Sequence to fold (338 residues):
Amino acid sequence: MVTYTPKERLARALTGKPVDRMPAISVTQTGTVEQMEAVGAFWPEANDNAEVMAKLAEAGHTIIGFEAVRVPFDISAEAEFFGCGIKPGTKEQQPSVTSHCVKDMSDIERLKDFDINRGRVATICKAIKILADKYGTKIPVMASMLGPFSLAQHMNGDDWFMAIMTDEDFATALMNLATEFNITYAKKMVENGADTMVIIDPTASAMLIGDAYYEKYVVPAHKRIVDAMHELNVPVVLHICGDTTMSIELMESSGVDGISIDQSVDVATAKSKVKKAVIVGNLDPVNVLWNKTPEFIKEKSKEVLDAGVSLLAPGCGIVSKTPNANLQTMVEMARNHK
Fold:
């Protein structure tokens, strides 16, 4: 049998082609305190400094064994770019959004003329370049960004959920701004060396907003991003938090190559609902990967693998206090699965 490089293996797996074995990856954030201590690259500096960010991302490969390098570690850089208030992160916690920047149409107009080459998104692109220069020929360089619906919610605050129901013009305009940003940002990350794209859109859940609004606002936006990436031969994985069981078909309708499911979704059911997209997941990052033993993780990994998951991975972002040994066990289970 042909043996593929990690880069070839992941690209083939995400596009439904035969592989020699399962890739060992995480499509969600990979940073942990033990990795930080092992390589001397710590949050919060690893969120703001390209060299430190790349060093910690590299630890996911060199320390844990993930067959990819991935940045960033948080989902607030996009909101920060547009002017939202941010609570700084710590060694154990990621930064978070504290205030919003869009109240009405005038704010949307004001923000349309954005420069992608500034702020923390530019730092992330620089980290991608560092990683691509070192690993890009053999190891996948995975880029991640907050999706347009959740970005719009960060920008508008909780009023966003009412806006999509009561002010179609405003909601459409803000979604268009967020989507244009996502496409521009994604293209810049690819230009810097990213070869796999992950959209993290946690509040774009049909369970939260209903199928009708998901189909109206989210599917077209995701499809525009996916189409832009596919033009560059870059596969796309979509992660939405929570129980997405009833909306798997809608998620796939955007054309994504992979759908990352969290621990509340049954793998076999998710697989039965897709036509082409591969299912990624879904070990519980808290109650399995963080709080249990390697032996327990082996058992749970086997359950997920036996259910037919295409790529074994965490069901959401890895908790910063997760032991290296636990993540290494998940990697070992993936690598040994044919």
The beta strands are 69-71, 86-87, 96-97, 141-146, 196-200, 236-239, 258-260, 278-283, 311-314.
